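Checklist before submission:
- one chain only
- standard amino acids only
- sequence pasted in full

Submission:
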Amino acid sequence: MAHEVQTMAYAGAEPWHGLGHLLPAEAPLETWQEAAGMNWQIHETPVLYNVAGEHGLHVKANSDSKVLFRSDTHAHLSVVSKRYKVVQPNEVLEFYRDLTDVSGYQLETAGVLKGGKKFWALAKTGKESVLKGKDRVQAYILLATSCDGTLATTATPTTIRVVCNNTLTAALRNNDNLENTFRMSHDRVFDDQIKETAAEKVGLAMKSLDVFKQQAEFLSKK
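Returned file contents:
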């Protein structure tokens, strides 16, 4: 399936693939966590392997790697370095608690991709522009991460409504400007200090959306 969606929740218009649970935008984060299928944890265990010897098989451990798996289904997610720091699904949603409570943002979509290897949450900022009276452009804040090494933990402004792997890829590809995007590799812990830094950068990035709005309105008149 091109969309790669396993579970998701959304507010507003139904996604193109017709999947997900519809929620009111003002639903609490705990409801979003349940509806988006993000109410599980990533657990880890050492990599074990069998070695044949004269007295039979012996179990050995690879001290340099660990296996990540889901707490609910025990499904394998990836094998990573022991230095790999995990970002939990609920941490992605918790990032928005102050943004929704204080700044007035509203969660728009959230979900799990590729069996749990990627997950994201997207909030509507309330900023929008209408070009030539009909083309409505919404401004969002996206936070996405992975547990298989394919995506750094990334917070970025976007005008793309993320509802699947394709739209997530497009939103990230269109925001390669490091001045507007927060990225953290998985060798660091996504702690409160890091979250605060990400939120500050997101706040500054909103100014770039204002510039985008002005440029789009100017170009639409040409």
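Reviewer check: The two ends are 40 Å apart (CA to CA).
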